[in-house]
Structure formats: structure tokens, C-alpha cells
Write the C-alpha cells for this entry.
Amino acid sequence: MYKNILQLKAILEAIDKIEQYTGDFKNAQDLYHDIKSFDATMMQFIVIGESINRLDDEFKNKNSSIPWQKIKDFRNIIAHDYFGIDADEIWDIVNSKILPLKQEVEKLIKFYEDDF
């Protein structure tokens, strides 16, 4: 279980970085044209996907409220089709999906650390 908690904390850290890297932008195009911030954000999505890949399957099945496979698939798109990434889609994910994911991951960490 400890390994899973470490991976959840890595996901949380990556989410915090995404929030930091994107927080000052007003729209998708501004983020996209700031190459360093955009690339740094994409790297953190890859980190999230890699961390999900390292979670035990049993753990993911037990905690299926998070769309683990969908997030991991998104990581694969970023890693393998970087030039096909839609800035508006990234912006939508950052602004509508990251906070709920963060909240779910925080709940899991608290639940499993209390159990530990």
C-alpha cells in the first residue's frame, strides 16, 4: 500500500505544478504560446500517467471513481502525438478536470494514510 501512497503523492505534486504553471494564463492560446509553461504542463501530465501506471491494478479497481485508464491514455497521446495536441483541450482539462482529480487523490491519500 505504501507504494500506492507514494504514487498518489507524485500525482498530487504534478497537479500542483500544473496549477502553478497554468495559473496566470487567461486562455488556451496564451498558455500554448508560452512554450516553457506549455511544455512543463505537458510533462506533468506525463508524470501523472506514469504514476498511474505504477499503481497496483487491485488498488485502481478498488478506487474506480477516478478514470485511471482514461488519464493514462491521455498521457500516451501527449507522449506519442505531441504535435497533435489541441491547446483548447488541454485548457479544458486544466480548468475542469484537474481540481476534481486533485480532490479525489487527496481523499485517497488521507483514507489510506489513516489506515496505515
Q: What stands out?
A: The chain has one domain: 2-115. Helices lie at 2-22, 28-33, 35-54, 57-62, 68-80, 87-96, 98-115. DSSP finds seven helices and no strands in the chain.
